[in-house]
Amino acid sequence: MRTLVDQLEPIARPGGKGRVLMFLGASRNAGTSTIAREFARTAAPRSRRGVWLFDMDFARNGQAKALCPPDSKAFDASFGRPPFWYAQPDASRARLVAKPAGRHLYVTEFQRARGAIERLEFGHSPTYWKAVRGSIDLAVIDAPGAGRAILPLVGDTDGVILVADDQHWSERAIEARREAIERRGGVVAGIVCNRARPIRQAA
C-alpha cells in the first residue's frame, strides 16, 4: 500500500493543492472499501492537512462504524459549498459530517432524520471538490459496487483507481467501466488486483 501511495503522488495538483482520488469497484464485492480504507490509513500519517475518507455508502456508513468510536465528535463536511449529493424530499434534515479516525485521518458519515430521505443522487460539484483540495491533502472516495450512481463524480476527481477481484477477473467488465468513466470526463489512474494469488516459482 505504501508503494501505491508513492506511485499516485504525481497526480497531485501543482501549487500545494490536495488531491481527490476515487477507488471504484470494477465489480461487486471486489473489496473496494478495504483497499480505499487501507490506502487512506497509509497516507494519513505522512500528510500535514489531513486525509479524508469519503464513504459513498450513505445507507450503511460502514467506514465510520469500522474506524470511529461511537462518541466521536462530528465536524461539518460541507466546506461551505453546495454538496455533491441531492436528497429528496427534505434535504434540510440530512447532512454529511466527518469524524476523526486516527492521526490526520477523518471519515465521513451521512446523517439523516428518520424518514427524511426517499431519494438520493450524486452529482457534479466542482466547487465542492475545489474547496476540499484547498483544505486537506487528500480525499479518498470509497465507491464500492458496480452501479452507475457514482459516475457523475468521476470528472471531479484527479484519478480513478479500479478495484477488481482476481478470483472473478473480467476484462470485459473492466473495459466497460473504464469507458464509462472516460465518457464522464474521468481518468483511470490504474487497477488494483485484489485477492491475487501468489505466483509459484518453477522448481
Describe the structure.
By secondary structure, the chain is an alpha/beta fold. It is built from 5 helices and 10 strands. An 8-stranded mixed sheet has the order 3-5-6-2-8-1-9-10, with helices on both faces. The protein has a two-stranded antiparallel sheet with strand order 4-7. A hairpin with a 2-residue loop joins β5 and β6. The model has no long low-confidence stretch (mean pLDDT 89).
List the helices and strands and how they pair.
Blueprint (H helix, E strand, L loop, with lengths): L1 H6 L11 E7 L6 H12 L7 E5 L6 H6 L7 E2 L8 E5 L4 E9 L2 E8 L4 E6 L3 H10 L2 E6 L15 E7 L5 H13 L4 E7 L9
Parallel strand pairs: 1-8, 1-9, 2-6, 2-8, 9-10
Antiparallel strand pairs: 3-5, 4-7, 5-6
| Share of residues in strands | 25-35%
Order of helices and strands: HEHEHEEEEEHEEHE
Class of secondary structure makeup = alpha/beta
The low-confidence runs, each spanning 5 or more residues with pLDDT under 50, are none
Key structural traits:
8-stranded mixed sheet, single chain, two-stranded antiparallel sheet, alpha/beta, 203 residues, 5 helices, globular
Summarize the structure.
It is built from five helices and ten strands; from the N terminus they run H-E-H-E-H-E-E-E-E-E-H-E-E-H-E. The protein has helices at residues 2-7, 32-43, 62-67, 126-135, 171-183, and strands at residues 19-25, 51-55, 75-76, 85-89, 94-102, 105-112, 117-122, 138-143, 159-165, 188-194.
